[in-house]
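Z., the sequence and structure:
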Amino acid sequence: MPSTLFARTALAALAVAGLVATASSATATPTATTPAPSAGVTVKMPTGAADLPAADHRALPDAVSADVLSRTHDVKELAPKAAAAKLADEGRKVVIDIRTVSRDWARGVAYVEAPRGHHGQPEGWIYLAHRENGRWISGLEGDREFADYVARSPLVGAAERKIMTDYARAETAPQKKPAPSTGTLAANTNGLLLPWARDYYMTLTGGPHTSGGSGQWSSLDFAGGNASGRIRSSREGTATSMCGAGGGWTRVIHPGGFSTDYYHMSNATYYNGTSIGQSALLGTIGTDLCAGGSATGAHVHWSLRTYDANYNGQYTWLNGRTIGGWTWWNGSSQYNGCATRLDVTACPGTAIYNRAS
């Protein structure tokens, strides 16, 4: 079913079921939240929502929630009411964070918490929404509406639009599908570094493993080293704090069709579609669980996402890709994989330097 049609149908179902929280008033603080009484859906409504007519204080979150539930890996096959109820039973919230509203446009972040007690990363999306013929239609990263809205929304700045338009419209070079047995992709990652300062080192604590329920082994864990625990952007781009101010999860959208996620950080700088340079400081290694999951010891959970021809808007295989001068390979099981550089093989427990090539 097309995403727009699904969103409209699901929106109606959510509204009838009363699953989405009523938004806070325009005088609420920027971090005010209102949990839904039964479904575990939480809406964050900023003071800037004064530009949002009262009638839309529910319609906008409804539209975004419907889209989110249709994309969440663990529940996407369920009807909206059943999907929201299943997540609530697991103690996992659906969070709709409305960051900016201007006339018929809105922008924000939406995410579904990762299961508590399991190491991993939540699923989350930057979204743009537009009110058309009296109805809000949302676009999450990776879908047709998002690509269209990036091109014309006044809430996307000129510099960001260039990066995000390429990103959303999948203008990276097509990649071959991975071999069934290995998932190998011979892919150019456009000079991405590992998530700390170049020519410093951290210790690899977890080889390739999954993120966000996608099934792709797209993530690495790092800790320690001589970089003072400081986590830095893998390349220049636009940064967004996915959990909001004080949360330890940041996404950076890079030129060339890739983005990177950084989770569990402490002392995270707040960004909201902000242009940053390569190696910009994002935070420090930590154990933050702003959107669920678990963490044993301070570290960063770093993940790769792509909008290439095969993986439109989701986490993607690391196997066979070169990041920070190291080529990454899956192991026999998650977390056991290693990296190679020149004649060196680095497996979990090894300190590795971050190299540009």
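The first strand starts at residue 33 and ends at 35. The helical segments are 3-17, 56-71, 80-89, 144-152, 158-168.

Let me know what you think.
H.
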